[in-house]
Specification:
The protein is rod-shaped, with a radius of gyration of 35 Å. By secondary structure, it is α+β, with helices and mostly antiparallel strands. It has a four-stranded antiparallel beta sheet with strand order 1-2-3-7. Strands 4-5-6 form a three-stranded antiparallel beta sheet, with no helix packed on it. It contains five helices and seven strands. It has a domain of about 140 residues. About 45% of the residues lie in helices and about 20% in strands.
């Protein structure tokens, strides 16, 4: 009786052993599958980080170009001769964009990715950037991950912060005749205060109102200048 039970227990253990092997193999496969999913998610997150950085880099470079062109227009007086083009710059459009996309490519490379597309839009000025990671997800139990790369898109928008403050209405102090002298004669004529309210030759100052702060930009004395971040905002659009 005892020998029979022993033989039966040994036979049951032998039949259960393959089931244990299958169960352990299944659990191992699931663990490797979860690891592969984690690898893919990490690669995707890396791609999104690179896309965000590249889009912001494009927007920030474009903001710098707008600021440079805007201040150059004040220095050379072209803001008066071509006021519409100058105000386009103030509104965040009109600068050349290739350098902005080059900056996007550089920042994508710093994040181990490459830029596949950098598309500017003129209004509101924005940059749509698509990147692909240089490294693949890697080998795993999931087919094709060894050659799969992360890809992501991001969009940065450059927005104006400033408007031109309205003129004060000063007429420049144009003089009329001076008073009379002791003999009752009419005194000398007062001098003209300058054309269009200016106090002499040169271009008139421009006052910008930027998020509640005012900047008076005098083309003859361009010392205290707003930063690019005072003139324009750069943000990611989701």
């Amino acid at each position: 009786m005892t020998a029979t039970r022993t033989r039966r227990s040994g036979r049951d253990a032998g039949q259960a052993f393959p089931l244990y092997i299958v169960a352990v193999g299944g659990l191992l496969f699931l663990a490797l599958a979860f690891f592969a999913v984690g690898q893919a998610a990490a690669t995707r997150n890396g791609a999104q980080t690179a896309a965000d950085a590249a889009a912001l880099a494009a927007g920030q470079k474009y903001r710098d170009l707008l600021t440079q062109d805007l201040l150059d227009g004040l220095r050379d007086g072209s803001y008066e001769s071509d006021r519409a083009a100058w105000e386009d710059l103030l509104n965040g459009r009109g600068a050349l964009s290739p350098a902005a996309c080059e900056n996007a490519s550089w920042f994508a490379g710093r994040n181990d990715a490459r830029v596949d597309a950098c598309t500017p839009d003129s209004w509101p000025t924005s940059f749509d950037v698509t990147v692909t990671t240089r490294k693949a997800v890697g080998r795993s139990v999931i087919p094709a991950t060894s050659s799969a790369h992360g890809q992501a898109e991001a969009k940065a928008v450059v927005g104006p912060r400033c408007t031109v403050a309205p003129a004060t209405g000063d007429d420049g102090g144009k003089g009329d005749g001076g008073g009379t002298d002791e003999k009752g004669g009419k005194g000398s004529k007062g001098g003209d205060g300058g054309k269009d309210g200016k106090d002499g030759p040169g271009s008139a100052p421009v006052t910008l109102r930027c998020d509640g702060k005012e900047w008076t930009l005098d083309p003859a004395h361009l010392q205290d200048l707003p930063d690019a971040s005072d003139l324009f905002s750069v943000r990611l659009a989701h």
